[in-house]
Amino acid sequence: VTMLGNRIIYNENSRDKTLVFSNDNETPALVQIWTDINNPKSSPDNADGPFVAVPAIFNITDNSRQNVRLTYTGGKLPDDRESVFYFNYLSIPSVKKEDADKNKLMIVVTNRMKLFYRPAKIGNDTADVINKLEVSRQGNTLDVRNPTPFYASVSSAALSAGNKRGQIENTTMIAPYSSEKWSLPAGYQSGNITLLLGVINDYGVEKTRSITLN
Protein backbone atom coordinates (compact mmCIF):
# COMPACT_ATOMS: atom_id res chain seq x y z
CA VAL A 1 0.00 0.00 0.00
CA THR A 2 1.36 3.41 -0.96
CA MET A 3 0.28 7.01 -0.52
CA LEU A 4 0.46 9.60 -3.27
CA GLY A 5 3.35 11.95 -2.46
CA ASN A 6 6.24 11.65 -0.01
CA ARG A 7 5.43 14.69 2.14
CA ILE A 8 2.27 16.51 3.22
CA ILE A 9 1.73 20.27 3.11
CA TYR A 10 -1.24 21.34 5.24
CA ASN A 11 -2.24 24.94 4.59
CA GLU A 12 -3.77 26.89 7.47
CA ASN A 13 -6.72 28.05 5.36
CA SER A 14 -7.65 24.48 4.39
CA ARG A 15 -10.57 22.83 6.15
CA ASP A 16 -8.84 19.52 5.52
CA LYS A 17 -6.35 17.74 3.28
CA THR A 18 -7.29 14.78 1.09
CA LEU A 19 -4.74 11.97 0.94
CA VAL A 20 -4.92 9.20 -1.65
CA PHE A 21 -3.85 5.63 -0.86
CA SER A 22 -3.55 2.87 -3.44
CA ASN A 23 -3.17 -0.88 -3.21
CA ASP A 24 -1.63 -2.34 -6.35
CA ASN A 25 -1.32 -5.82 -4.87
CA GLU A 26 -3.53 -8.82 -5.49
CA THR A 27 -4.56 -9.05 -1.84
CA PRO A 28 -6.46 -6.63 0.44
CA ALA A 29 -4.71 -4.88 3.32
CA LEU A 30 -5.54 -3.19 6.60
CA VAL A 31 -4.18 0.36 6.99
CA GLN A 32 -3.89 2.36 10.22
CA ILE A 33 -2.94 6.06 10.38
CA TRP A 34 -1.59 8.30 13.14
CA THR A 35 0.50 11.46 13.57
CA ASP A 36 3.12 12.50 16.10
CA ILE A 37 5.07 15.60 17.08
CA ASN A 38 8.58 14.11 16.88
CA ASN A 39 8.76 10.53 18.05
CA PRO A 40 10.22 8.01 15.57
CA LYS A 41 8.99 5.20 17.83
CA SER A 42 5.43 6.49 17.99
CA SER A 43 2.48 4.14 17.62
CA PRO A 44 -1.30 4.54 17.42
CA ASP A 45 -1.39 4.08 21.21
CA ASN A 46 0.84 7.06 22.03
CA ALA A 47 0.21 9.28 19.00
CA ASP A 48 0.38 12.94 20.00
CA GLY A 49 0.04 14.74 16.67
CA PRO A 50 -2.71 17.42 16.46
CA PHE A 51 -4.40 15.88 13.43
CA VAL A 52 -7.32 13.54 12.89
CA ALA A 53 -7.52 11.18 9.91
CA VAL A 54 -10.90 9.94 8.70
CA PRO A 55 -10.93 7.02 8.38
CA ALA A 56 -7.99 6.30 10.67
CA ILE A 57 -8.32 2.54 10.12
CA PHE A 58 -9.60 1.02 6.91
CA ASN A 59 -9.46 -2.02 4.67
CA ILE A 60 -8.29 -1.36 1.15
CA THR A 61 -9.17 -4.01 -1.40
CA ASP A 62 -6.78 -5.29 -4.02
CA ASN A 63 -6.07 -2.99 -6.98
CA SER A 64 -8.08 -0.10 -5.55
CA ARG A 65 -7.80 3.37 -4.02
CA GLN A 66 -8.93 4.96 -0.77
CA ASN A 67 -9.25 8.65 0.08
CA VAL A 68 -8.49 9.82 3.62
CA ARG A 69 -9.39 13.24 5.02
CA LEU A 70 -6.80 14.80 7.34
CA THR A 71 -7.92 17.65 9.63
CA TYR A 72 -5.92 19.84 11.99
CA THR A 73 -7.41 19.81 15.51
CA GLY A 74 -4.71 21.54 17.56
CA GLY A 75 -4.38 25.04 18.94
CA LYS A 76 -2.72 28.16 17.63
CA LEU A 77 0.67 27.66 15.99
CA PRO A 78 3.28 30.30 15.03
CA ASP A 79 1.96 32.30 12.09
CA ASP A 80 5.34 33.51 10.83
CA ARG A 81 6.87 30.10 10.03
CA GLU A 82 6.07 26.48 9.26
CA SER A 83 5.60 23.87 11.96
CA VAL A 84 6.54 20.24 11.33
CA PHE A 85 4.85 17.04 12.46
CA TYR A 86 5.07 13.44 11.28
CA PHE A 87 2.50 11.30 9.48
CA ASN A 88 2.60 7.52 9.86
CA TYR A 89 0.68 4.69 8.27
CA LEU A 90 0.86 0.98 8.95
CA SER A 91 -0.01 -1.57 6.27
CA ILE A 92 -0.92 -5.16 7.15
CA PRO A 93 -1.59 -7.56 4.24
CA SER A 94 -4.48 -9.97 4.57
CA VAL A 95 -4.07 -13.74 4.67
CA LYS A 96 -5.93 -15.91 2.18
CA LYS A 97 -8.33 -18.43 3.68
CA GLU A 98 -6.43 -21.35 2.21
CA ASP A 99 -3.25 -20.09 3.90
CA ALA A 100 -4.79 -19.41 7.31
CA ASP A 101 -3.44 -22.63 8.85
CA LYS A 102 0.01 -22.38 7.30
CA ASN A 103 3.11 -20.92 8.87
CA LYS A 104 3.91 -17.85 6.80
CA LEU A 105 6.07 -14.79 7.36
CA MET A 106 3.94 -11.65 7.38
CA ILE A 107 5.70 -8.37 6.66
CA VAL A 108 4.15 -5.34 8.37
CA VAL A 109 5.36 -2.06 6.90
CA THR A 110 5.25 1.32 8.65
CA ASN A 111 5.77 4.41 6.52
CA ARG A 112 6.70 7.77 8.04
CA MET A 113 6.82 11.16 6.35
CA LYS A 114 7.02 14.83 7.21
CA LEU A 115 3.81 16.80 7.67
CA PHE A 116 4.24 20.57 7.35
CA TYR A 117 1.67 22.98 8.75
CA ARG A 118 1.94 26.15 6.67
CA PRO A 119 0.42 29.42 7.98
CA ALA A 120 -1.51 31.56 5.50
CA LYS A 121 0.65 34.57 6.36
CA ILE A 122 3.81 33.12 4.78
CA GLY A 123 2.21 32.02 1.50
CA ASN A 124 3.39 29.10 -0.63
CA ASP A 125 6.34 30.52 -2.53
CA THR A 126 8.96 27.91 -1.61
CA ALA A 127 10.63 27.63 -5.02
CA ASP A 128 13.55 29.86 -4.04
CA VAL A 129 14.30 28.47 -0.57
CA ILE A 130 17.45 26.68 -1.75
CA ASN A 131 18.85 29.89 -3.26
CA LYS A 132 18.24 31.84 -0.06
CA LEU A 133 20.24 29.51 2.17
CA GLU A 134 23.37 31.24 3.45
CA VAL A 135 26.49 29.06 3.63
CA SER A 136 29.80 30.12 5.18
CA ARG A 137 32.91 28.23 6.23
CA GLN A 138 34.11 28.67 9.79
CA GLY A 139 37.26 26.68 10.39
CA ASN A 140 36.43 23.00 10.06
CA THR A 141 32.68 23.51 9.83
CA LEU A 142 30.10 24.92 7.47
CA ASP A 143 27.47 27.23 8.92
CA VAL A 144 24.23 26.86 6.95
CA ARG A 145 21.59 29.47 7.76
CA ASN A 146 17.95 29.37 6.67
CA PRO A 147 16.52 32.92 6.67
CA THR A 148 13.14 31.82 5.28
CA PRO A 149 9.87 30.88 7.04
CA PHE A 150 9.99 27.41 5.44
CA TYR A 151 11.80 24.24 6.44
CA ALA A 152 14.74 23.38 4.18
CA SER A 153 14.83 19.59 3.74
CA VAL A 154 18.45 18.93 2.81
CA SER A 155 18.83 15.72 0.82
CA SER A 156 22.52 15.85 -0.08
CA ALA A 157 25.67 17.90 0.40
CA ALA A 158 28.46 16.87 -1.98
CA LEU A 159 31.93 18.39 -1.84
CA SER A 160 34.61 18.82 -4.47
CA ALA A 161 38.11 20.32 -4.37
CA GLY A 162 40.16 19.83 -7.52
CA ASN A 163 39.94 16.12 -8.34
CA LYS A 164 38.69 15.17 -4.88
CA ARG A 165 35.08 14.24 -4.27
CA GLY A 166 33.44 13.91 -0.88
CA GLN A 167 30.18 14.04 1.03
CA ILE A 168 29.01 15.72 4.21
CA GLU A 169 27.26 13.05 6.25
CA ASN A 170 24.29 13.43 8.58
CA THR A 171 22.93 16.64 7.11
CA THR A 172 19.66 17.66 8.69
CA MET A 173 16.48 19.53 7.94
CA ILE A 174 17.06 23.20 8.70
CA ALA A 175 14.24 24.89 10.61
CA PRO A 176 12.95 28.35 9.65
CA TYR A 177 15.10 31.28 10.82
CA SER A 178 17.77 28.96 12.21
CA SER A 179 21.14 27.52 11.29
CA GLU A 180 23.01 24.21 11.42
CA LYS A 181 26.72 23.49 11.63
CA TRP A 182 28.14 20.70 9.47
CA SER A 183 31.59 19.23 10.06
CA LEU A 184 33.87 19.28 7.03
CA PRO A 185 35.74 16.03 6.34
CA ALA A 186 39.53 16.01 6.15
CA GLY A 187 40.83 17.42 2.90
CA TYR A 188 38.12 20.07 2.64
CA GLN A 189 38.99 22.24 5.61
CA SER A 190 41.12 24.75 3.69
CA GLY A 191 41.47 26.14 0.19
CA ASN A 192 38.69 26.57 -2.36
CA ILE A 193 35.90 24.01 -2.23
CA THR A 194 32.59 23.61 -4.04
CA LEU A 195 29.43 22.49 -2.25
CA LEU A 196 26.66 20.92 -4.33
CA LEU A 197 23.62 21.26 -2.11
CA GLY A 198 20.39 19.31 -2.66
CA VAL A 199 17.05 20.36 -1.15
CA ILE A 200 13.68 18.62 -1.54
CA ASN A 201 10.83 20.84 -2.72
CA ASP A 202 7.09 20.64 -2.01
CA TYR A 203 6.65 17.98 -4.70
CA GLY A 204 9.33 15.67 -3.35
CA VAL A 205 11.78 16.60 -6.11
CA GLU A 206 15.41 17.43 -5.37
CA LYS A 207 16.65 20.85 -6.48
CA THR A 208 20.39 21.50 -6.46
CA ARG A 209 22.62 24.53 -6.08
CA SER A 210 26.38 24.85 -6.50
CA ILE A 211 28.18 27.08 -3.97
CA THR A 212 31.86 28.00 -4.12
CA LEU A 213 33.56 28.63 -0.78
CA ASN A 214 36.96 30.26 -0.36
Short description:
With 214 residues, the protein is mainly beta. It is built from 1 helix and 16 strands.
Structural class by sheet pairing and helices: mainly beta
The CATH architecture designation of the largest domain is Sandwich
Strands in their spatial order, largest beta sheet: 2-9-8-4-6
DSSP summary, beta strand count: 16
Organism: Morganella morganii (Proteus morganii)
Subcellular location: Periplasm
Keywords: Chaperone, Periplasm, Signal
Family: Belongs to the periplasmic pilus chaperone family.
Can you walk through the features of this model?
With 214 residues, the protein is mostly beta strands. It has two domains: 2-122, Immunoglobulins (Immunoglobulin-like, Sandwich), CATH 2.60.40.10; 129-213, Immunoglobulin-like (Sandwich), CATH 2.60.40.10. Helix content is 2%, strand content 49%. The protein has one helix and 16 strands. The chain starts with a strand and ends with a strand. The relative contact order is 0.17. The model has no long low-confidence stretch (mean pLDDT 94).
